[in-house]
Structure formats: structure tokens, C-alpha cells
Design brief:
mainly alpha; 9% strand; two-stranded antiparallel ribbon; elongated; 8 helices; DNA Binding (I), subunit A
Length: 205
Amino acid sequence: MTNTQAPNKWCTHGKHYCPITEFTQTDSWCRDCRRLYGTEYMRQYRRSHKATIHASAQCRYQQKSGAIRAQHGEYYAANREAVLERNRQYRRRHRISVNAVKAVYQKQWAKTPQGHAKTIRDAAMRRARLAQAEGSFTVQEWLTLKEYHRNRCVHCGADESRQRLTVDHVIPLSLGGANYITNIQPLCGPCNGSKGIKTVDYRGK
């Protein structure tokens, strides 16, 4: 009976014998050792060159951002339910880490002008819902109103760099005032507190 088994060859990296078919023609390492070494080498390379790799990836993305976004949009439109379900499963499996990252991001974002404006606006919207008041306003409308008044309290003139501006309803919600931007004036905290639930329009000062 003829033995058709391929002869073995010594792998100089793994220090073991493998069938000669597991080697390229000029390589003294078997394919498994070469593959494992390449994987570990790339892992170590990525760790030690993280900043360079990130910068290179950012550069490539900026050059092709339009095409990439279009491709992602097409994929999402065609696989919306599958993407949403995959995201839900990921959040369930990694609930603690996802919540931790989200909390850090929200804390940092809340310190930005846009983030602080959204926090102020959301608080006003909650008060309006509780008071069953009509109307709403956008974050951009609130930012535009503050800019119109030079980012100062319309009563005492305090600059927002010293006193955070808050939403004050000229006609209070509790007295039937609406939650439209036309019924809102930017006041610093102390002035808003002293005004209380009185109907006082400081915008004409």
C-alpha cells in the first residue's frame, strides 16, 4: 500500500513538525505560526502607533466623508430594523459601559454653549408641560434671543460670563403665559428669582 501522506518539515518558529504543504516554498515558518505572528505583530503595532493610525484614519475619512456618509445612509435605509436591533442588543450587553460613556459625554457637552442652551430649553419645556401651557421654542431661538440682548441679563445687565442666563416667561406660565419665544426674556438667576411670578417685561429697558 502506497503512503500518500505529505512529508513533514520543521517549523523554526513554533519548534514543531508540520506537513510540508503548510509551508510556502521559501518559508521556514508554517502558515499557522506566520498568521499568529502577523496578528500579534499588528496588535502591538496598533497599540504603539495609536495616534498615528487615528490621524491617518481621520484624514482618509475627511477626504471621502461625503461618499462614506452616503454609503452608510444607503445601508441604514436598506437595513434599518436590523441595525436598530443590533444597537439595542449591544446596549443591553454593555449597559454599564454605555451608560458610563454617555454620562461623561453629556457632562462635557452640557458645559458647551449649545449644550447649556439645550439644558435650559429642556427645563423650560418641562415646566410648560406641567403647567399645560401652549407653545414651544427651539434651542436656536433661545441662542438668538440671548445674542440679541448681547448675552446679558435684560434687568441688571450682568454678562453671561459672570452669571448664567435663565429662561424667564414675561407672563408667568402659572398665570396663563405661553411658552413661545415672544414671551421669554433672558434673566440671570438672582433677577429671575426676585421677579418671581409677577408679570414684568424688562425687554424695553
